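Z., the sequence and structure:
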Amino acid sequence: MILRDAPTGIGAVYAITLLFFITKGNKPIYDQYAMMALFNMTPDPLIGYHELPQRGTEGRIDGGFIEKLTERYEQYIALLEHHFGDMYKKCRDIDRALWVYGHLCKDKEKKCSN
């Protein structure tokens, strides 16, 4: 994965953004607010919101960082596909709407109130 050889300063969000360009848009850019919105749209109580893991101290990749990042990113993609199929790859309005809805969620640990 990109992160194993990444220089200091390239963390989870930047690496995922690079994936978007390397895959020519096939992999989505992770957005914490879109993830909060997806979490709130999903009735399954087993799915909980988690921020992306941090890379570690002094640029080291430790504590299962790659595994945690991969798991969270795959969960993000699965939720996008569950709710929108492949349309999330073609329609930027979905990104925008998720971002706005995610900003309404003030407490990351709880569902948004309707």
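The chain has a mean pLDDT of 76. The chain is about 50% helix and 0% strand.

Let me know what you think.
H.
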